[in-house]
UniProtKB/TrEMBL annotation:
UniProt-recorded name of the protein: DinB-like domain-containing protein
Lineage: Bacteria, Pseudomonadati, Bacteroidota, Cytophagia, Cytophagales
Pfam families listed in its UniProt record: DinB_2
Transmembrane domains' residue ranges: none
Organism from which the protein derives: Nibrella saemangeumensis
Record-linked SUPFAM superfamilies: DinB/YfiT-like putative metalloenzymes
UniProt-listed InterPro entries: DinB-like, DinB/YfiT-like
DinB-like domain boundaries: 29-161
Amino acid sequence: MNATDTREVWLRGPLPDMPVLLQPVAHALLQAREEINALMADFPGELLWEKPAGLASPGFHLQHLTGVLDRLFTYARGEMLTDDQLKALKAEGQPAETSLGVQELVGLFNEQVDKALTQLRTTDEQTLTEVRGVGRAQIPSTVLGLLFHSAEHTMRHLGQLLVTVRVLTGNMQ
């Protein structure tokens, strides 16, 4: 990949060592990472927990993006959430629960994307239709369903974050 390539990630070609059927998930996560890093590069920290018109704050979106990837990939491995993951879920959107700033939250998201990509690379495509339980109720999904939803959910929150940041900063470009 050329560092100056401005095409969307999916148009840059296949990712090395990524299972063919999981390329779209990886492309979406990498696209989200690029856009979030660019969007939040100069975002003022004092606006991190602002909720314009009652929208979720940028801080919530950054925490939630990280947490959702962690939780959905945990379920895709066939594991239950740990106490730490449940505690993090409860703390999403609660500014008093974190002293992390914008760049620290973006950094945690970047780390979670790296972990997700590693898991995608090691996922056996033969397991994609295996049933996995979600949550305490063990609602049935599949490995592919969870991985696809992680990408879709990430892009949904990226869009919401984009709008919220632009409203807060007055940057409507």
